[in-house]
Design brief:
By secondary structure, the chain is mainly alpha-helical. It is built from 6 helices and no strands. The longest helix has about 40 residues, at about 40-80.
């Protein structure tokens, strides 16, 4: 029975952790883009994003990570034979990358709060895709274990994921260009000199 409790709370922890990671970097994007706003909107937005980021990281994302990892340890204690499987080694390697990403987000958050972040909104949008790719790979390893498919269906799914990520990036670029164009359209034309 303990196995099912560990597994249930591991899944819950993973869902909470990923939800937090997805939204956290989205807040970083808004935080960086608030720099382009005029005062007092810039200060108000940056202060609000700072509060939201701290709360999201400390109250949702990090506890989700702790629950996911603690329950995974419990599962591995109950099922130590999984540690002999190659798929588990690959999964644990990807989880290590995810943990590094989580802690890197904390570093970026501190830089944002000090006004030292050098990342652009576009770079942060690309960074925001990393947990999606990790999630897909980890779930595939858990489902297929050592029988990971390499046929046409697999490559179709990989293509769809890449297509979705590219579409999101292109849409974000289009929105940015439309916003820049709208700002240029608002600039009044210089009047001709009158004689």
């Amino acid at each position: 029975m303990a196995y099912y409790w560990f597994k249930a709370f591991h899944i819950i922890g993973v869902v909470v952790w990923f939800a937090g990671l997805f939204y956290l970097v989205r807040l970083f994007i808004y935080h960086v883009e608030a720099e382009a706003e005029p005062e007092p909107a810039r200060s108000i937005l940056k202060n609000q994003y700072t509060i939201m980021e701290k709360r999201l990281y400390g109250i949702i994302t990090t506890p989700g990570m702790v629950v996911a990892v603690a329950m995974a340890v419990g599962l591995l204690v109950l099922m130590p034979e999984y540690l002999k499987d190659g798929w588990m080694h690959a999964k644990l390697g990807l989880v290590a990358v995810l943990l590094a990403y989580h802690h890197y987000c904390a570093r970026l958050m501190r830089q944002l709060h000090r006004g030292e972040c050098k990342w652009s909104g576009q770079q942060l949008r690309a960074l925001n895709e990393a947990p999606t790719l990790l999630l897909v790979a980890i779930v595939m390893l858990v489902i297929f274990k050592n029988n990971f498919p390499t046929g046409a269906t697999t490559w179709l799914m990989v293509g769809l994921v890449v297509f979705m990520a590219a579409t999101i990036q292109l849409y974000a670029r289009k929105r940015r260009l439309d916003k820049e164009k709208a700002a240029l359209d608002e600039i009044p034309e210089p009047q001709a000199l009158q004689s």
